[in-house]
């Protein structure tokens, strides 16, 4: 007559095993014996029953107390009742069929253990009458330079399907106007479905690098244009670069103030949400004050200052002590 095994024997761990060791042992055995993975359903039930008790602190304490008195509740694998018998005591648990049905339907029979992390939801499919179940989505990210995001690019990518371990390769088409955090979905390139279900999708996130000059705001592009105090005062014509590599001529009116923004329609980035359209290019003037002057420049500016009779702080002086 075969000797009864304890739950610890079933999982192949010591009686002082930590919670992590018990969880790792269960994951390994469950992946090996799960019926949807071609394993032994009877052995799968055995390791599942053992994990149900040992993963619960209260049930494990009660179980250990019973072991101290020489009894092995449950785990009657090979005894007089045969391998099909599951004899739970009142202290340890309940009817195995209830627990296994809960596990199949995803109701948390394993104390919060996410069974789908191993089988991608396959256990739920069996409990659903072997209905076809679509595979889960897979995710990955791709780094894109600012220039590639403006004009579009292609990239070869290789990824691994978790359920089979196979590597698959595809060509990623990065659209012109791609934004940081944008999503590219490739249908039917994700995890395999079960019972003839469709494959999931592959979802790729684009990580777009910052451009040293152009700042993205969706399809709109913003930049700052430095001007000298002379250009801002007298006016100027400046050639401004655009995201597509061309230039646009900006006529700066005389007396332009720092912070003035000019808008160029349809000269921003391509709009990925509205094909065939582009955002705007916004150019903000930043007046630069020289920090080093020659004696001639200083004398000229001093003469201009002394001859200037405008009151630039009229609004401020209205609240001063002289009001």
How would you describe what is shown here?
It contains 11 helices and 11 strands. It is an alpha+beta fold and 323 residues long. The chain has a 4-stranded mixed sheet. Strand 6 (215-217) and strand 7 (220-228) form a beta hairpin. 21% of the residues are buried. Residues 74-128 have low confidence and may be disordered.
Features:
29% helix; three-stranded mixed sheet; alpha+beta; 323 residues; elongated
What does the largest sheet look like? Answer: 4 strands, mixed
Shape: elongated
Q: Approximately what portion of the residues adopt beta-strand conformation?
A: 15-25%
First-residue to last-residue Cα separation: 109 Å
H/I helix tally = 11
Average pLDDT level: 82
Radius of gyration: 36 Å
Main-sheet strand order equals: 6-7-11-10
Number of strands: 11
Helix % is: 25-40%
In sequence order, what are the helices and strands, one letter per element? HHHHHHHEHEEEEEEHEEEEHH
Spans where pLDDT lies below 50 across 5 or more residues: 74-128
Structural class: alpha+beta
Summarize the structure in short.
This protein has 323 residues and is an alpha+beta fold. The protein has helices at 7-11, 19-33, 41-54, 57-68, 96-105, 116-119, 122-127, 146-151, 229-234, 295-307, 314-317, and strands spanning 138-144, 153-160, 167-174, 182-186, 202-208, 215-217, 220-228, 236-241, 247-252, 261-264, 281-288.
């Amino acid at each position: 007559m075969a000797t009864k095994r304890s739950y610890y024997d079933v999982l192949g761990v010591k009686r002082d095993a930590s919670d992590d060791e018990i969880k790792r042992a269960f994951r390994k055995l469950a992946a090996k014996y799960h019926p949807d993975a071609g394993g032994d359903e009877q052995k799968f039930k055995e390791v599942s029953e053992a994990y149900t008790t040992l993963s619960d602190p209260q049930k494990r304490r009660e179980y250990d107390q019973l072991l101290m008195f020489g009894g092995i509740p449950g785990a009657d694998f090979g005894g007089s009742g045969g391998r099909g018998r599951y004899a739970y005591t009142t202290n340890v648990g309940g009817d195995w069929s209830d627990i296994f049905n809960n596990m199949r339907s995803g109701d948390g029979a394993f104390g919060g253990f996410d069974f789908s992390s191993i089988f991608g939801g396959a256990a739920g499919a069996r409990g659903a009458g072997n209905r076809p179940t679509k595979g889960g989505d897979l995710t990955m990210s791709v780094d894109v330079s600012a220039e590639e995001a403006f004009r579009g690019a292609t990239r070869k990518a290789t990824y691994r399907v978790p359920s089979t371990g196979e590597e698959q390769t595809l060509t990623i088409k990065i659209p012109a106007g791609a934004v940081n955090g944008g999503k590219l979905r490739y249908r039917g390139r994700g995890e395999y479905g079960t019972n003839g279900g469709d494959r999931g999708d592959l979802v790729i996130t684009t990580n777009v690098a910052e451009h040293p000059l152009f700042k993205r705001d969706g399809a709109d592009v913003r930049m700052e244009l430095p001007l000298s105090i002379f250009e801002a005062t007298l006016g100027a014509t400046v050639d401004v670069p655009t995201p597509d590599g061309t230039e646009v001529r900006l006529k700066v009116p005389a007396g332009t103030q720092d912070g003035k923004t000019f808008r160029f329609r349809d000269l921003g980035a391509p709009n990925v949400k509205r094909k065939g359209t582009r955002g705007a290019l916004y150019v903000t003037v930043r007046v630069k004050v020289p920090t080093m002057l020659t004696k001639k420049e200083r004398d000229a500016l001093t003469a201009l200052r002394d001859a200037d009779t405008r009151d630039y702080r009229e609004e401020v002086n209205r609240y001063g002590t002289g009001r």
